[in-house]
UniProtKB/TrEMBL annotation:
Keywords: Membrane, Transmembrane, Transmembrane helix
Domain of life of the organism encoding this protein: Bacteria
Residue intervals passing through the bilayer: 20-37, 49-69, 89-112, 343-364
Transmembrane helix found in the keyword field: yes
Record protein name field: DUF4407 domain-containing protein
Annotated region (Disordered), positions in chain: 405-435
Membrane in keyword set: yes
UniProt feature, compositional bias: Basic and acidic residues: 423-435
Length: 435
């Protein structure tokens, strides 16, 4: 029964040998094709040079994969010692690593390279969208100071009007030094307000331009067709958008507001009281001192608010790095695990067949070792043994003498090495010596 099972396994191994070679050839060819597609994405030069370089490389990879796994399928199942098996496993691991290095990542680039580049472009769009929003917010932050500036300007203007009409501050109506000072402060606040309002339109225009660039970039990411021309146009849009973001960062009027706040207090120059009576001059001085204190408080408040705006993190200029399909599939490998698994499986699937053959040959050896010699000998070996026996009888030698004659060194001879021709020639030589 054991001999029958062993024979069936042996017959099965012989039956699938052609299929094994065919499968190795198909897998090596498939790996070569995808390697060619991946290699074209990383090669530069003329179309002809790229074509021939990619073809030569892919053919080399196909031949290397087929030869390597053919050697492993032929030799590994028949290595029985522990040291030999360990050495072969080490060689297999080294070869598999080399195959993945020279082929698998290019296969993955062919399978998922375009999707990886699109993901790179998509993440770049998200980054630039965040940069544009931050630059826009920084540029508009100074707009939050506009209500305070308007209230301060209106307050100075109202005080000047009241003083001119009723003299509620100095007790004397008319346009004197106090009215002149209040009007001057109101004009400064109005000028600062106009500057902020003017920057708003410029910021809105730049933000609109940036949004249009982002919309174009998003359409390039999702557009059908080859990825290379879309990536080139995407790079052009990135350059334009970077200029818009830089302009937004330079448009902020916060530094101007900070300088204006300092000018309010440092550059405060009160006019000389123009009252004719000493009592009026004294009242004018008191009102001017009050205005000076109010202007100083307003200056400190504006300076503090401007400093908070200026302390915001600036939008650093982002550098867009285009990636090829091969580089993108490596950079975003964790997002394309199925493609990587398929690419590696094409190259390493023959290893499974090698282990299957090793297991089958191991089972055959174990079954045959438990059988007596008479059941393990084949018909061909039996016929050869009978031929040797007839040759020994014809020579007039005993079996021990025939074995000794076949191996002069005294080692035990293999039956396959003892042929009838050798025995007859040795018998003739010995008979001549006896004579």
């Amino acid at each position: 029964m054991a001999l029958g099972a062993s024979q069936r396994l042996t017959d099965s191994v012989a039956a699938v040998e052609t299929m094994t070679r065919f499968a190795l050839a198909v897998l090596a060819l498939a790996s070569g094709v995808y390697t060619y597609l991946g290699a074209r994405t990383i090669l530069d030069g003329s179309p002809t040079a790229v074509f021939f370089a990619a073809v030569i490389y892919s053919v080399s990879v196909s031949i290397g994969i087929y030869a390597f796994w053919s050697y492993m399928a032929r030799f590994y199942p028949h290595v029985t010692t522990r040291t030999g098996r360990t050495a072969m496993l080490f060689v297999m691991a080294a070869g598999a690593a080399m195959i993945m290095a020279m082929s698998s990542w290019l296969n993955a680039a062919a399978l998922a390279g375009s999707a990886a580049v699109e993901q790179h472009l998509s993440e770049t769009v998200e980054d630039y969208t965040a940069d544009l929003d931050r630059a826009h917010q920084n540029a508009l932050a100074v707009q939050g100071l506009l209500p305070d500036i308007q209230r301060a300007g209106e307050r100075f203007a109202q005080l000047a009007a009241v003083e001119r009409q009723s003299g509620s501050l100095t007790g004397t109506t008319g346009s004197g030094s106090v009215v002149q000072l209040l009007s001057q402060m109101s004009a400064q606040m109005k000028g600062l307000e106009n500057g902020i309002n003017g920057s708003r339109e410029q910021v809105a225009d730049l933000f609109t331009q940036g949004q249009k660039r982002l919309e174009t970039m998003r359409s390039l990411v999702s557009a059908p067709g080859a990825i290379e021309p879309r990536a080139d146009q995407f790079s052009t849009e990135v350059v334009a958008l970077t200029g818009v973001i830089t302009s937004l960062a330079q448009t902020s009027i916060a530094p101007s507001v900070r300088r204006a706040a300092d000018d309010l207090s440092i550059g405060f120059i009160a006019p000389v009281p123009d009252g004719t009576a000493p009592d009026l001059v004294n009242r004018q001085n008191q009102v001017m001192d009050t205005v000076r204190a109010s202007v100083s408080a307003q200056s400190k408040a504006l300076g503090k608010a401007a400093d908070e705006i200026l302390s915001r993190p600036r939008v650093e200029e982002r550098r867009f790095v285009p990636l090829s399909a091969a580089a993108a599939v490596l950079h975003y490998a964790q997002d394309f695990i199925p493609a990587w698994a398929g690419a590696i499986s094409i190259d390493l699937l023959p290893g499974v067949m090698v282990f299957i053959l090793a297991v089958v040959h191991g089972a055959i050896r174990r079954q045959e070792e438990g059988l007596p010699f008479a059941e393990r000998i084949t018909a061909a070996e039996l016929l050869q043994a009978l031929q040797v026996q007839r040759a020994v009888v014809a020579s007039g030698m005993t079996m021990e003498e025939a074995v000794a004659a076949a191996e002069p060194d005294g080692d035990l001879a293999e039956p396959n090495n003892i042929t009838s021709i050798d025995l007859k020639s040795r018998a003739r030589d010995r008979s001549h010596e006896d004579r």
